[in-house]
Amino acid sequence: MANSNGWGDGAANNAIGWGQGANNAIGWGDIHADSWAGLTDISGLPTTDPDAQAFITAASITDPTQQAAINQLVIGLKADNLWTKTKAIYPFVGGSATSNSYNLKNTAQYQLSFSGGATHNSNGYTGGVNGYANTGLNPNTAFSTNDSFHMSIYSRTNSSLDGADLGGANGSTRTDLWLKAADGNCYNRVHLNGITAANANSTGIYISTRNSSTSLKLFKNNSQLGSTYTGANGSRLDVNVFLGAYNLGGTPSFYTQRNYAFASIGDGLTDTDVSNLNNRINTFNTALSR
Amino acid sequence: MKLTDLTTEQKLTYVGLLTEVQKDELVGQWYAPDSYFNPIQDLNDNWVISVEEMEQCVNRDYLWVKDLDLIPYEPKPTPPPFEN
Asked: What whole-number distance in Å separates Cα of residue A80 and Cα of residue A277?
C-alpha cells in the first residue's frame, strides 16, 4: 500500500518507509532496488575516503591498523578544513622507501625522492649521515603569494646538531626549520628572516605558519615557541624543499639524522588550524603506536 | 675495516671510502627501490657513502660498494646560516 509515512510491511511507494516493499523514497526496506537512501545503501560502513584509498593503493598499505589510521587522518583533515590548505602530506607509513615516499594529498604530485643513507620502518623515516628527502615542492612555483605558507614536521629524535629538518635557501631567500641546532636554539624562517627560540628538546610536533607579510609563528606541541616574527617578508624560496637536510641552492647539506613520522607543507594556518593539525598528527601517530 | 666487521654502534659513525672515479659512478644511481646514492665529502675531502647505502644496496651494478673500506666519519664543519 502507498503509505506516506509508513512502518508497515506494505509493498510499495512508501514516501518514508520501513516497509519491505520497493520504491521507498527513504526506506529501510529489505527490497531496496528503488529506495533512495535505504539502510542497505550505507551498510558498507565504515567506508574508506577516496583520497585515503588512493594513497593506500599507491603505497601498497595492507596493514588494517595503518589503513584505518590513514582513513581517519584524511577524514579528520577534511572535517577541520585543513585538507584544502595542504599541498603535501607525508605520513611516513608502510615501512619502506616506496610507501614513505607518497604524498597523501595527491599521490601523483610531490613524491619524495630519498638519497643517501636511510632507515625506513614502522617509526617512519630516519636519515643517515648523508640522508635526505627531496619533496619536489618549489614554493616559488607551488604558491601564488608570499604571505601564506605553513610547514609541519613530527620529530621523534632528540638531538642537538646543525641540521635542517625542512627547507632550503637561494640567495637571501630562506625557508627553513632547524628544530634544535648545536647552540640549543630552534630556527625558523619563511622567505627571509624569522624566529629564534631556545628549545630544550628536538622531539615533538612543530608547525610553522605565515599568515601575512608581518606574521610568522612557530608552534611546538600546540604551544607557541618563541615570539611572533613581524619583520619584513621576502620572496618565495625558489628551490625544492628538502626534508632531513638543507637545500643550499640545489646542494644538500646540514643533514639531521633524525627520525620523522609526519610532515606537511601548505597554505598559512590560523591558530585554530594549528591546534587542529597538531591534534590530527597526534591522533594519527598514536594510532600507529609511535 | 669492512662492512662485516662493524658493530651496531660503529654503523652510526663509520662510512665507506670512495675513489673519485667510484664517486662519479654512483652519483644519480639507485641502491634500493626509491633510494639513491649520495656521496659526500668528509673533513679531509674524502668521498664517502653511508653504511646504510652499502648494506641496503641491491643494485647488481653496484654491489661492489659492500666491499668498500670503512673509515670513521668526520663531518666537514660548515657554519650554519643562522643570522636573522
From this structure: 8
Do A247 and A173 contact (CB within 8 A), yes or no? no
Q: What is the mean pLDDT of residues A243-258?
A: 96
Amino acid at A25: A
Contact A130 B38 (CB under 8 A): yes
DSSP code of A250?
T
**For residue A270, what is its C-alpha cell?**
590560523
Q: What DSSP string describes A168-191?
A: EEETTEEEEEESS-TTSEEEEEES
In this structure, the strands spanning A124-127 and A259-266 are: antiparallel
* Per-residue cell: A242: 628538502
Sign of CA dihedral B52, B55, B58, B62: positive
Q: Which residue has the cell 625558489?
A: A238
Q: Does B37 touch chain A (CB under 8 A)?
A: yes
The verdict on pTM exceeding 0.95 is: no
Predicted complex ipTM: 0.95
In this structure, the strands spanning A113-115 and B35-36 are: parallel
Q: Which residues of B touch A189 (CB under 8 A)?
A: 84
A90, A119, A130, A229: best to mutate for the B interface, most B CBs within 10 A: A130
Residue B20: strand, helix, or coil: helix
Residues whose CB falls within 8 Å of the CB of residue A44, separated by 6 or more in sequence, listed in order: none
